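pipeline/complex-builder :: batch 7 item 3
reading input block
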Amino acid sequence: MSKRKPYTRPMGPTWWASHPYYRFYMLREGTSVFVALYGLALLCALFALVKGEGAWNAYVAAMSSPLAIVFHLVCLAMASLHAVTWFSLTPKTMDIWIKGKPLPEKLIVGAHYGGFVVASLVIIVAIGGWL
Amino acid sequence: MSFQRSHEPIVWSLFGGGGVVAAFLLPALILVTGLLAPAGLLDGDALSYARVLAFSQHWLGKLCWLTVIALPMWHAMHRVYHGLHDLKVGARGLFFVLCYGFALVVTIATGTLLLAI
């Protein structure tokens, strides 16, 4: 048994608040709360759809309430921040080498933004009913 | 050091997949369903019961629902679980079960509802 008592630096629950880098890290991780909340909203929509036409129409009507608009505005901001931070990490997670050279980071990030634009347009046009 | 098999590869792949889905699809999905639709900017019956029901009865439609609900939920719960650690909240075992359990329940609920359509 060792009798030494090494000093352990105390670390409180607000350690991240003291530095902008850590604050942004917590904000990035915090986007997940709104990703989860929007997922639950989609689950409610699906539940209303299963219940029937009346429940579905009531759900769609409820989406026009000021509270629902604010909720979706915050979710959109958070989901967009998630997308930006996620894409900026892609050169780290997709370490692609071609002929002994690493693929330029800008190309990897740019390709993701290209895919994002295409996917977004498909979603907007498909759901919007203009097909 | 323990040689017990880690759960990390499984939840990390769900986290990664969910992160990709959330990044590529959620901003546009939120914009259309939560802002453009209430603003009346969509086609008249874009979100009508009949149209959404027909979409959801197709297996491809069901796959879309499951993809946009379940995967981002695994992603979010993974971050919430590790975020609680960052916030120095104790009871790791309990929150492991609560976080990933919640994602599992949402996944099963989504699947069950989709089968009921």
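note: Strands of chain A lie at 97-98, 101-102.
queue -> next item
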